[in-house]
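pls ignore typos typing on phone
adenosine-5'-diphosphate + seq
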Amino acid sequence: MSVLPGADDVVLRVGGSPENVRTARLVAAAVARREGLPEDRVDEVRIAVGEAVTWAMHTVTDHVVELVLGPGEEGTGEFVVRVGGGLSPVGGAEEAAVVDPGAADGLALALLRGLADHVTIEGDTTVLTWSDVP
Amino acid sequence: MSVLPGADDVVLRVGGSPENVRTARLVAAAVARREGLPEDRVDEVRIAVGEAVTWAMHTVTDHVVELVLGPGEEGTGEFVVRVGGGLSPVGGAEEAAVVDPGAADGLALALLRGLADHVTIEGDTTVLTWSDVP
Amino acid sequence: MDLTLATRPEGDRTVVEVGGEIDVYTAPQLRSALNDAVAAGARHLVVDMSGTEFLDSTGLGVLVGGLKRVRTMDGDLELVCASEKILKVFRITGLTKVFTIHPSIEDALAGSGPA
Amino acid sequence: MDLTLATRPEGDRTVVEVGGEIDVYTAPQLRSALNDAVAAGARHLVVDMSGTEFLDSTGLGVLVGGLKRVRTMDGDLELVCASEKILKVFRITGLTKVFTIHPSIEDALAGSGPA
Ligand SMILES: Nc1ncnc2c1ncn2[C@@H]1O[C@H](COP(=O)(O)OP(=O)(O)O)[C@@H](O)[C@H]1O
Ligand SMILES: Nc1ncnc2c1ncn2[C@@H]1O[C@H](COP(=O)(O)OP(=O)(O)O)[C@@H](O)[C@H]1O
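k done
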């Protein structure tokens, strides 16, 4: 599925190589900083997005991982990162069947839950949300 | 048009804001470095890609700019960056009607021509090529 | 990397120190700083790019614009830049023929000076 | 940011200094370094992360794997880390309860030592 990002969204698509996890972290940190997150939260974004991308590279079938990064819906004061295969725009994220992250396991998930303010896993898509963005 | 990047390609899609030129430069430098370009050529990539993205933000109608970055076709030893609207994969770039860059003007174009080894402008798409990548 | 700007008088010259990245994002700030200096009466500008780490064509355009502006007032705009990376940008665009570029601020201020 | 690895003996301990980013890209190198040390007879490992700037879950997994491995040989693996940013990664994953983490290499080597 093709992505038409919102005006403020950044979309990154990378093949499934560990080096590309670094590219994704770099972009995530840059966009988070641009969106006004303070440095300690930029660090949270950097780690959490790296985990989500690493995970997606193992679960997405064609090993192409797509990220959509940007502010949430108008006025929510959120920073949202969607990581997965074919994605819809960040701002218009429709509510899908949500798997309870608590049902999954592992260090990666512990980091996602500990670092992002909100984590949902919808199929092969991970949505990370940071709230109260200044 | 949707992009299916080659396995080694990185695709970045950004809205038409000057801040996003920086995101594009950051990604271009990271991918160039990953592809093994030496630091002085990474600097060339950083500047030239910034120019191409700035230019595309003015010419692409919906102000969404897409970059596809990666090695050229197998065995060419090239690093290729395509900047424009809807793009085809870097590796399978079909030869399109090529506008002679010499016919255009400006500092930006001087930089593109001076920094990339090869520049073609096909409609609203700029293709920058660096050769002899180690 | 944001832009830092500091303007100070040095005799009858005005030095504008520019740190960080001069690009399509920050060039408007540099344009304002140059315009403010001219509005405050400066005619002999020295743009000190010793702390400049990146320069794109929009930034170049602002410098060229500044130069043209002060020239119409019998002024001048000279540059300080020692970074090979940034000098290359001036060379490629042919602007080394347009600007006087000094390797250090000392050199710029010691120069023959405004006519 | 690539990984730098340096292994050296300190009495009956073996210190592995790790600089740069330990992540899904570089963790295999760290795993090899730990395996090599164990193959060379090391049982009491100190992984010095004073120069480590980034750590992800793959890196954590390698450290946990190393600890489990030496424990089966009555050895141990302790860490040196003073960076709040990286300690946070251990805290969030509950691994502060699993690893002994020293604030400095001096502290790690001055400790009660291997049993
Ligand atoms: N809190 C913990 N204490 C001890 N070992 C742990 C802890 N959390 C994870 N581990 C171990 O670390 C390794 C990697 O963990 P994890 O990422 O959870 O595994 P997986 O990749 O199978 O999900 C495993 O060997 C796991 O048993
Ligand atoms: N080699 C040069 N010498 C003097 N002025 C130049 C040179 N190249 C460009 N300029 C001036 O710099 C400004 C921006 O240049 P350019 O990017 O070429 O303009 P445009 O954006 O219209 O293409 C213009 O005022 C142009 O006249």
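Helices of chain D lie at 27-39, 57-71, 84-92, 105-110. The first helix of chain D runs from residue 27 to 39. more later
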